Automatic annotation (TrEMBL):
<dbReference type="GO" id="GO:0047343">
    <property type="term" value="F:glucose-1-phosphate cytidylyltransferase activity"/>
</dbReference>
<keyword id="KW-0548">Nucleotidyltransferase</keyword>
<feature type="domain" description="Nucleotidyl transferase">
    <location>
        <begin position="2"/>
        <end position="225"/>
    </location>
</feature>
<dbReference type="InterPro" id="IPR029044">
    <property type="entry name" value="Nucleotide-diphossugar_trans"/>
</dbReference>
<dbReference type="InterPro" id="IPR046981">
    <property type="entry name" value="G1P_cyt_trans"/>
</dbReference>
<dbReference type="InterPro" id="IPR005835">
    <property type="entry name" value="NTP_transferase_dom"/>
</dbReference>
<dbReference type="GO" id="GO:0009243">
    <property type="term" value="P:O antigen biosynthetic process"/>
</dbReference>
<keyword id="KW-0808">Transferase</keyword>
<protein>
    <submittedName>
        <fullName>Glucose-1-phosphate cytidylyltransferase</fullName>
        <ecNumber>2.7.7.33</ecNumber>
    </submittedName>
</protein>
<dbReference type="InterPro" id="IPR013446">
    <property type="entry name" value="G1P_cyt_trans-like"/>
</dbReference>
<dbReference type="Pfam" id="PF00483">
    <property type="entry name" value="NTP_transferase"/>
</dbReference>
Length: 257
C-alpha cells in the first residue's frame, strides 16, 4: 500500500522557517519532519511514497536526489571526481515526487497523483504531523469496516488556558487539556481509490466537499487515537518537538537508527 504525503502548502503560520524552505523540510533533530514521517511509516513496512510537492518543491526533490550524500560520510577525490561512500543510508524507500502546483488545494493535489495509485487502497497524511498511531491496526480497521475512507481522529492539546468561572468570579486558571477538546482530523488516513471520484479539480479542498460528502453518505470511518499526536503548525510546535527529540525517546521514534 502506497503512502501519499501532502507537502505542497505555503506553511504561512510558521513563516519564520517556511520563507526559506517548504514546511515538510523544516528540521527536527537535524532531519526534515518529512523524513521523520517516512521513517515512521517505513517502520510498519510501508516503503513506497508519493510526495505531493508545491511551494519550494524543488528543495524536496533536491533532498531525495542527493539523499545519499546528505546522509553519508564520504571521501571525494577532486582531481578525478571519484566519490567513496563510507556510511550509506539503508532506507528501503521508493519515492515518487510529483509537482502538484503552487496554488493547488489539498483535493487537487490528491487528484493529480491518481495515475500513481495502482491498488484499491492507499494511505494519506500531511507533511507536518507526527504520532504514535499503530498503522497496522489502522489499516486493519479500515479493511474491516469497508468504508471508502478512514481518518485517524485525535484530541489535540489546547493552545489557550481555561478559566473556570462561578458567579462572575474566576475560581481557577488551568491549561486546556485534550478532554476539553473534541475530535479532529489528525491525518494518517486510509482511502479507497474511489475517493478520486469525489474530487473535482485543483480548487477542491479535500477536507471540505469530498470528505463532507463521504460523511453524509456514511462512507467515512473514524479511527480514534488517544496516544501521541502533534502537528508542527507554529514555531512553538517545532520547539516542543525538538525538545522531545533531544530526550532521546521521542514518542514517534520506533526505529533503531
Amino acid at each position: 500500500m502506497k503512502v501519499v504525503i501532502l507537502a505542497g502548502g505555503f506553511g504561512t503560520r510558521i513563516s519564520e522557517e517556511s520563507k526559506f524552505r517548504p514546511k515538510p523540510m523544516i528540521e527536527i533533530g537535524g532531519r526534515p519532519i518529512l523524513w521523520h514521517i517516512m521513517k515512521y511509516y517505513s517502520s510498519f513496512g510501508f516503503h513506497e511514497f508519493i510526495i505531493c510537492c508545491g511551494y519550494k518543491g524543488e528543495l524536496i526533490k533536491d533532498y531525495f536526489v542527493n539523499y545519499q550524500s546528505y546522509n553519508s560520510d564520504f571521501t571525494i577525490e577532486l582531481k578525478n571526481n571519484m566519490l567513496t561512500m563510507h556510511k550509506i543510508p539503508n532506507e528501503d524507500w521508493k519515492v515518487t515526487l510529483v509537482d502538484t502546483g503552487l496554488n493547488t488545494m489539498t483535493g487537487g493535489r490528491i487528484k493529480r497523483i491518481e495515475q500513481f495509485i495502482d491498488s484499491d487502497n492507499f494511505m494519506l497524511t500531511y507533511g507536518d504531523g507526527l504520532c504514535d498511531v499503530d498503522l497496522n491496526s489502522l489499516v486493519d480497521f479500515h479493511m474491516r469496516h469497508g468504508r471508502m475512507a478512514t481518518i485517524t481522529t485525535v484530541k489535540p492539546e489546547g493552545r489557550f488556558g481555561i478559566l473556570d468561572i462561578q458567579k462572575e468570579m474566576i475560581t481557577d486558571f488551568r491549561e486546556k487539556s485534550s478532554n476539553d477538546m473534541g475530535w479532529i482530523n489528525g491525518g494518517f488516513m486510509v482511502l479507497n481509490k474511489t475517493i478520486f471520484r469525489y474530487i473535482q479539480d485543483d480548487k477542491t479542498v479535500f477536507e471540505r466537499e469530498p470528505l463532507e460528502k463521504a460523511a453524509y453518505e456514511h462512507k467515512l470511518a473514524a479511527y480514534k487515537h488517544n496516544g501521541f499526536w502533534r502537528c508542527m503548525d507554529t514555531q512553538r510546535d517545532k520547539e516542543i518537538l525538538e525538545k522531545m527529540w533531544e530526550t532521546g525517546k521521542p514518542p514517534w521514534k520506533n526505529w533503531n537508527v
